[in-house]
Amino acid sequence: MSTPTTMQAACIDQLGGPIRIAALPVPRPGPTDVLVRVVASGVNSVDRFVLSGAYRTPTPFPFVLGRDAVGTVAEAGPGATAFKVGDRVWCNSLGHGGRQGALAEYAVVAADRLYPLPDAADAQQAVAVLHTAATAYLGLVRHAGLQAGETLLLEGAGGGVGSAVLQLARTMGVRVIATASAADEDWCRQCGAERVIDYHRADRYEQVRHAAPEGIDAWWDSSSRNDFAAVLPLMRVGARVVLMSGLRDTNPVLPVGALYTRDIALHGFAISNASTHDLAAAAHAINRLLAAGQLRARIGATYALADVARAYAAMAAGGTRGRIVIAV
Question: Where are the alpha helices (DSSP H) in 2-57?
């Protein structure tokens, strides 16, 4: 089937929106690029920061939104020899750094940011975990360096990132104490949490202390509360903090004394800054779990490409339990 000359895409013409569905030229791949016919994409919170300008990154207008793409190879440049037309593939690092996004019928992806999709993987299930699972891998392995037998306190465990952290931690042999809403307790246990504590409880951190009397080895708060004063006393000497939420928190309390006197390391990271080497390592782990059926997501809603603006509005409003997928 020949590639058309135009495509539908969800884009913005200036920071702050609005999002529009436009007929844009199908992009042409360079020598080491691959043109992907997109089958499924998704919406991520970081897209909203890019859209608003809160997260500064080059955005050549009209700028197509979206990080994650699952699809098939439509064309491969002469230097992209690892891919051939018809291959099922995925990418989770579009829509940033000047790279046009995935919320379109076609997307150009650099070959070193594109990965094969395992035959057993469902496109929509896969696209729902690509961004969160890579974030989980980088936080657990690259930054916190967690080892089998160590204990992680994970807050906001019922969300997309939290769910992925639970599933990857389970495969690593890491014990996880999770905080989440009571409605998410069963889901968190299915994903691998050993103990789930209702985050509404006033004594939730005392409950953590009882669950880990020897102290915790790492703390990851994906809920943006980042209550250092309450959690640092629960941490062992040499523990690690994974910090990847709270962009709007401009005046956090950081008890520096408790950090340095207990050799606690603070690892702040954003997946947008990850190198292609780190993303490839995460992709290898993700593909292994997808092929084995050990990585899944709750899909809370599915929208058509024409309804992308509604999808972002639904994500901003909250209340959707699970990831939002765009069927292209």
Answer: 45-52
Contact criterion met (CB below 8 Å) for 243 and 268: yes
Strand pairing class (6-12; 63-64)? antiparallel
Tell me the pLDDT tens digit for each residue of 299-314.
999 999 999 999 999 9
Residue from 244, 198, 185 nearest 55 by CA: 244
Query: Please, what's the b/e burial string for 179-204 (b: 16 or more CB within 10 A of its CB; e: otherwise)?
Result: bbbeebbebbbebbbbbbbebeeeee
From the list 188, 181, 147, the residue with the least C-alpha distance to 165 is 188
How far apart CA 133 and CA 130 sit, in angstroms, is: 5
pTM above 0.90, yes or no: yes
Cα(246)–Cα(258) distance, integer angstroms: 21
Element (H, E) at 33: strand 33-42
Q: Which residue has the tokens 């910090």?
A: 243
Q: Coil, strand, or helix at residue 313?
A: helix
Give the distance between the most distant pair of CA atoms in the chain: 64
Kind of pairing between the strands at 115-116 and 88-91: antiparallel
CA-CA-CA-CA torsion for 42, 323, 158, 230, nearest 10 degrees? 40
pLDDT band with cut points at 50, 70 and 90 for residue 250: low
Query: Which tokens sit at 122?
Result: 């469902």
Task: Classify the C-alpha dihedral 11-14-20-26 as positive or negative.
Answer: negative
